Amino acid sequence: MPELPEVETVRRGLAPALVGATIERVELRRHDLRFPFPERFAARLQDRRVLDLRRRAKYLLADLDDGHSLIMHLGMSGSFRIDEETPGAFHHKRDKNAAHDHVVLHLDHGRRIVYNDPRRFGYMLLIATQAIDEDKLFRGLGVEPLNGALDAALLARAFRGRAAPAKALLLDQRLIAGLGNIYVCEALHRAHISPLRAAGSLVTASGRPTAALARLPEAIKDVLTDALKAGGSSLRDHRQI
């Protein structure tokens, strides 16, 4: 499943084509993905200009000029491409099966953004931009690991008194948003922490982080930074070429 680096890589690849463009027409080739499309989904996107393309956790958020945002989740196998023959710099060239092209955004500059998803675990929603932080999908999400909010003190508070393995807590999106199995395991390895180690054992009796826990925030940031430089690593559709 695409994790933070893969989704951020897709965002960076799509942004030059999508931000500032107007969606002239939306082509839905089925009535649902993981969930049914919102009511009047295509009509509500038509003639909307994209003001910004952001990422929160593993979600892409395209802010529109009508005060709503198009929320996109890639699921297990979702990918985007620009036009038929212009894959963009965010995924490997590969054979395309048009049977899995489920959504096409026709833009005013002549390009098309095509969403392909063989397993159909992805989904798209429309949410009022100002209401995103309070929406059920987003209100419980933890800190973004690369924006400065992640530090050893935060982890110590979350880990203190917990018998659960450190890996399990790091995978909890309520603590750190966007991390998945690949990057959690690598970060723990770099910090020399067993993924099976009880989280509480990484905190002193006074509630301070141990030396091992103190290494973990930077290990997480370094792993994610390295993955972003490489264009992601969980699916070839989300790697830099």
Structural description of this entry:
This protein has 241 residues and is α+β, with helices and mostly antiparallel strands. The protein folds into two domains: 131 residues, N-terminal domain of MutM-like DNA repair proteins; 85 residues, Helicase, Ruva Protein, domain 3. The chain is built from six helices and eight strands. Strands 5-7-6-1-2-3-4-8 form an eight-stranded antiparallel β-sheet. Helix 5 packs across helix 6. The chain is elongated, with a radius of gyration of 19 Å.
In terms of topology, how is this protein built?
Layout: H1 4-18, E1 22-28, H2 41-45, E2 48-56, E3 59-64, E4 68-73, E5 79-82, E6 101-107, E7 112-116, E8 123-128, H3 152-159, H4 166-170, H5 181-190, H6 211-230
Helix pairs in contact: 1-6, 3-6, 5-6
- Percent of residues in beta strands? 15-25%
Number of domains: 2
Main sheet: which strands, in order across?
A: 5-7-6-1-2-3-4-8
> What is the C-level CATH assignment of the largest domain?
Alpha Beta
